[in-house]
Design a protein that fits this description.
It catalyses: 7,8-dihydroneopterin 3'-triphosphate + H2O = 6-carboxy-5,6,7,8-tetrahydropterin + triphosphate + acetaldehyde + 2 H(+). By secondary structure, the chain is an alpha/beta fold. 25% of the residues lie in helices and 34% in strands. It has one domain: 6-pyruvoyl tetrahydropterin synthase/QueD (Tetrahydropterin Synthase, Chain A, 2-Layer Sandwich), CATH 3.30.479.10. The two termini are 18 Å apart. The protein binds the ligand Nc1nc2c(c(=O)[nH]1)N=C([C@H](O)[C@H](O)COP(=O)(O)OP(=O)(O)OP(=O)(O)O)CN2 and zinc ion.
């Protein structure tokens, strides 16, 4: 089995609603996202001979995916007062609302499925909130 890994980072703020601790406050991370793709075989012939995929393409797609979240305030839907949200948006802040609680685990699963939908055979998606806090998502055997 061959495994390829590409990573990219983005800087964003978030908060965990209904969290009893410091993470309930808006705070920022340099989120590092690692995507691993797998293949039992290599491409034969042509420019991609001997590759699973071209790193250039994989890196571009990972960067494109995470750049969307760069320098934003990421908010789980319905966890901020309408009025507050409205004012922040009116003042031109980049707000991204997500359907899930913005934890490293949820982002790992989200990025995993995003890359799968792009056509990659994804082995694992890992999201670092800090250099020492990492969550990963991969499919259970047989699924
Ligand atoms: N399983 C998870 N636990 C926590 C998550 C998460 O996504 N998954 N997220 C948070 C917070 O977002 C927080 O920013 C990270 O927690 P923490 O380790 O406390 O952050 P610090 O690096 O700032 O820790 P210090 O050791 O105080 O510097 C919480 N938990
Ligand atoms: Zn955090």
């Amino acid at each position: 089995m061959y495994l390829l890994k590409a990573e990219h980072s983005f800087d964003s703020a978030h908060f965990l609603a209904n969290y009893n601790g410091k993470c309930r406050n808006i705070h920022g991370h340099r989120w590092k996202v690692e995507i691993e793709v797998k293949s039992e075989s290599l491409i034969r012939g042509g420019q991609l001979d001997g590759m699973v995929v071209d790193f250039t393409d994989l890196k571009r797609d990972v960067k494109e995916m995470v750049d969307f979240y760069d320098h934003a305030l990421i908010i789980q839907e319905n966890t901020m007062r309408e009025e507050t949200l409205k004012h922040l948006m009116e003042d031109g802040f980049k707000i991204i609302q997500v359907k899930f609680r913005p934890t490293a685990e949820n982002f790992a699963a989200f990025f995993f499925h995003y890359m799968e939908e792009k056509g990659y055979d994804v082995k694992r998606a890992s999201v670092y909130e800090t250099p020492t806090n990492c969550a990963a998502y991969e499919k259970s055997e047989g699924k």
